[in-house]
Design goal:
With 134 residues, this protein is an alpha+beta fold. Helices cover 17% and strands 18% of the residues. The protein has one domain (1-50, 82-134).
Length: 134
């Protein structure tokens, strides 16, 4: 059981894993998998369970008008496919890894929060996050 929300564990494909991210898009999964494998973590990816849909409200026909057909029930929109990403190293915590400067990119620079969140294409760690003026 996790001590807090930032350090969760689950069995993914019958392997105990520290959860990196839930409900990740396929593009996000590709980014995280490449980054984590580069940093020597064994990555496990499984599909996230589909969200539970609320049952449709029954449509009652008007009394005495049995010839009126019920309106067609609209189809539910396609549910986007999302994934859960985990690593087999149970000591891994994404927050600690980022702010503890433990992860590196393929060119050897330290992974910043903006790079992890994919807000920047290049990890620029010349100015620490706490000194950046916004």
């Amino acid at each position: 059981m996790a001590i807090n929300k930032n350090h969760e564990f689950e069995d993914l494909d019958s392997i105990k894993c520290a959860i990196v991210e839930k409900n990740a898009s396929p593009e996000r999964v590709a980014f995280l998998k490449q980054l984590l494998e580069l940093n020597k973590y064994q990555v496990v990816v499984v599909g996230s369970p589909a969200p539970k849909a609320a049952p449709a409200a029954p449509v009652a026909a008007a009394e005495g008008d049995a010839t009126t057909p019920a309106p067609p029930i609209p189809e539910a929109p396609a549910v986007p496919t999302t994934f859960t990403v985990g690593v087999t190293n149970l000591t891994f915590n994404a927050t600690n890894a980022i702010f503890g400067r433990q992860l590196k990119t393929d060119n050897g620079t330290i992974v910043t929060l903006a790079y992890w969140q994919q807000k920047e294409a290049i990890s620029n760690d010349e100015v620490p996050y706490f000194e950046q003026v916004r």
